[in-house]
Design goal:
Elements (H helix, E strand, L loop, with lengths): L1 H16 L4 E5 L26 H8 L12 E5 L9 H10 L3 E6 L6 H9 L2 E7 L4 H8 L4 H13 L5 E7 L8 H10 L4 E5 L17 H15 L6 E4 L25 E4 L4 E3 L6 H4 L2 E2 L5 H7 L2 H4 L15 H4 L18 H6 L2
């Protein structure tokens, strides 16, 4: 109980200070794949024009240099960021401003030459998605050959010691039986960090039953992660920051659950909207727009729904005994302050 009280105090202090240190830039919504679980509904020919680098830099430059966190990390996401022909120019501009930067990629375009160019441009972090063995991954990503391209990227990145690199996997009903084989595959490839997440019912995955684990499958996933973390080895498995997990809380993560969206994390979306994590409902929770507002002023003065979560005490969360530890689950599980939470991870492990 003392540990929980200390964590609540830490979270309250972080919320009061709300130091921005992690910024997502949805730099494109173009994508070469057609993933079953995409929350952004990306296509190769997106209706959204890529945001010009100069527009993003103007927003970033509203953060006073003396108030900028050190380190400050910018993550390029999409869509597929490597579809931007100016990706290295972007990296050099961010690096020149003293920001650490990285990308989230499906790996299709990531070969040895691309890695060299990105590292030369100052890239310090990379996340590559791998969603099962070959058949499951290609099914999930909607394009044959996706698994081979992702594994090529993973092998290259794992061999680059200067990279803060991890693999992220979306576990669903089709690939949950492949967890041990995936673990062995990634360990053999030299991967050191494997981050696992599950699906919430948004985007293309909303009405796809194969995307959503049963409560028993979700519990089995937690037991798999806890088991792998209990054994020593070079590959560290972690569950994402999706929600409070009760008895698994100290077994599947390095730190207790804390949704940092709007506390330390913001995003600039493709159309200029200012939000927190890109996965959060952008219509309900965007706080402004870089084309009308001062980005840093928005960060300082808005984001109240993220920093005061009492509005989540509704629906199934209203009388929950662990609400003070959960605060209504991750913000990506809400479609607005007047709705009910889409997912309750705590209830899944209780079988409720």
């Amino acid at each position: 109980m003392i540990g929980r009280l200390l964590h609540r105090a830490f979270r309250a202090n972080e919320t009061a200070v709300h130091e921005l240190n992690y910024l997502f830039w949805e730099c494109t919504t173009r994508c070469n794949l057609h993933c079953r679980h995409c929350g952004s509904d990306c296509f190769a020919a997106s209706r959204d024009v890529d945001m010009p680098l100069e527009d993003f830099l103007r927003a970033f430059d509203t953060i006073p240099a003396q108030e900028r966190a050190n380190p400050f990390t910018i993550v390029l996401t999409g869509g597929e960021p490597l579809l931007r022909p100016d990706i290295c120019e972007i990296g050099r501009a961010l690096h020149g401003r003293g920001a650490s930067w990285g990308i989230v990629s499906n790996g299709w375009f990531y070969d040895g030459e691309m890695q060299r160019k990105l590292l030369d441009a100052g890239m310090g972090a990379l996340t590559v998605s791998l969603d099962g063995l070959a058949g499951s991954h290609d099914w999930m990503r909607g394009r044959p050959g996706s698994f081979d391209r992702a594994m090529r990227a993973i092998s290259l990145a794992a061999a680059a010691p200067q990279l803060n690199f991890d693999v992220v996997s979306c576990i669903n009903r089709r690939n949950i039986g492949e967890l041990d084989a995936l673990f062995d595959l990634l360990q053999q490839a030299g991967v050191r960090q494997w981050r696992i997440f599950t699906i919430i019912p948004i985007g293309r995955a909303a009405d796809d039953p194969e995307m959503h684990l049963s409560d028993a499958e979700f519990t089995a996933l937690m037991e798999f992660i806890a088991g792998k973390r209990a054994t020593s080895g070079p590959l560290r498995v972690t569950f994402s920051c999706e929600g409070y997990l009760g008895r698994f809380e100290n077994k599947v993560r390095d730190v207790p659950y804390f949704c940092h969206a709007g506390i330390n994390i913001a995003s600039v979306l493709i159309d200029g909207r200012i939000c927190a994590c890109p996965n959060i409902d952008r219509d309900a929770f965007s706080q402004g727009n870089i084309y009308q507002d001062n980005f840093y002023q928005v960060w300082q003065d808005r984001f109240q729904p993220f920093r005061d979560r009492r509005w989540t005490r509704r629906g199934r969360c209203k009388d929950c005994k662990v609400w003070r530890d959960c605060l209504g689950n991750g913000m990506h599980n809400w479609h607005g302050p007047c709705t009910d939470v889409l997912n309750c991870h705590y209830s899944k492990i209780l079988g409720k």
